[in-house]
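Problem 12. The chain below contains 250 residues. Write out its predicted structure in token notation.
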Amino acid sequence: MRLGYFEREGKVFAGMVNGDMVYPLRGGFGGRPEPEGYPLAALKVLAPCRPSKIVCVGLNYRDHARELGYPFPEEPVLFLKPPTTVIGPEEAIRYPAMARQVDYEAELAVVIGKIARHVRPEEAAAYILGYTCANDVTARDLQRKDGQWTRAKSFDTFCPLGPFIVTAFDPGDCTISLYLNGERRQHSSTKELIFNVAYLVSFISAVMTLYPEDVILTGTPSGVGPLKPGDSVVVEIEGIGKLRNHVVAA
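Solution.
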């Protein structure tokens, strides 16, 4: 299934996408679809989930670690993005005035389906609602200046997600790419992940409780680079789709 949030005539609802139609779900993602749907083209597609937190994993692709000349981490390196960073497809990434270098980072996002605490890796799939595309936008100069990542990762609009949550998806070997103004800048496979999705759900849930619609960003591959106002940026993940956003000056 493809799931998400949609807006019609000022009303926001959770829905299931079937072909070019969207069927509202009674009671949210766990509910039954309404018999009558709406044409997808007549709706505004919003960010596909509403997380209480976004848990991110740094340096989790082998090709990215090799590109930077860093050793592979012995355990996942975690940081957080606030929910105010989330935007949906076709929305604008705002380039903050205090930043001088803002980078794109294409990522596979895991969307949690039910409360997860101390989950074993072999149980992880039962706690995952599905997967979507993400862009972990980062003010790189501020990351270097601060010596830690909170400010650099936390500006409003710095976590585009979408277009939909795909529930039947194998995260073990899928292609992930990023296109900047039509030119491919990142291209890799989740085979390059140092810590796989099941391990990440287990590791993170041993640290903090994960709630439905919380998001785990699984890391970015090699090829990270800068954005500027006026740019168009597309994250594409095989089997999920394309997440398109544009950049404007804040």
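Discussion. The longest strand covers residues 241-249. Students who got a different answer should revisit the alignment rule from Section 12.3.
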